[in-house]
Amino acid sequence: MKLLAAIDLHTAPEAVVREAGTWAARLGGTVDLLYVDDTPDAAVFVGDPNVRAIVVEERDALLAKHAAAVQALLAQLPDAVRGAALCLPGLPADVTVERADAYDAVLVATHGRTGLSHLWLGSVAEQVVRRAHVPVVVLRLPEPG
After folding, report:
1. Phi/psi zone of residue 112: left (φ > 0), alpha (ψ -120 to 50 degrees), beta?
2. Domains located in the chain, CATH noted
3. What sign has the CA pseudo-torsion 63, 73, 139, 143?
4. Is residue 24 classed as helix, strand or coil in its secondary structure?
5. Tens of pLDDT along 34-79?
6. Neighbours of 84 (CB within 10 A)
7. Phi, psi (rounded to 5 degrees) for 9
8. Distance (Å, rounded) from C-alpha 36 to C-alpha 89?
9. What predicted TM-score, i.e. pTM, was given to this entire model?
10. How far apart are CA 109 and CA 140, in angstroms?
11. pLDDT tens for residues 73-114?
């Protein structure tokens, strides 16, 4: 069984990776980690070529840092369940749904927001559940602290 675990590097990624590894082990499969980098390309708004070069350099450094972080998280998984590390640009829900069809199931984490915070911030997990054509397992993130 091939699983795709969508992770957010900014919110408890270790917990999500551990849980994804547990699911993969129980199902006798492997898990690929997906981080979707939605950092905007600010360089398109910069007219000065020298400043644009600096902005592009900083964005490239940030993307490299994110890719290394995903690779480090993947290394925490046992060899038997370890798949690939994916770090792609775009909108998290869109990219996750686009990639989902190549997998048997998708694992996503949720903060469990309700009320106005849910309305304001939305939910990537909810969008993936509604739009993916494969089963989606929603993992509850641990409480902060």
Report:
1. left
2. 2-140 (3.40.50.620)
3. negative
4. helix
5. 999 887 777 777 788 888 888 888 888 988 999 999 999 999 999 9
6. 13
7. -65, -15
8. 6
9. 0.85
10. 6
11. 999 999 999 999 999 989 999 999 999 999 999 999 886 555
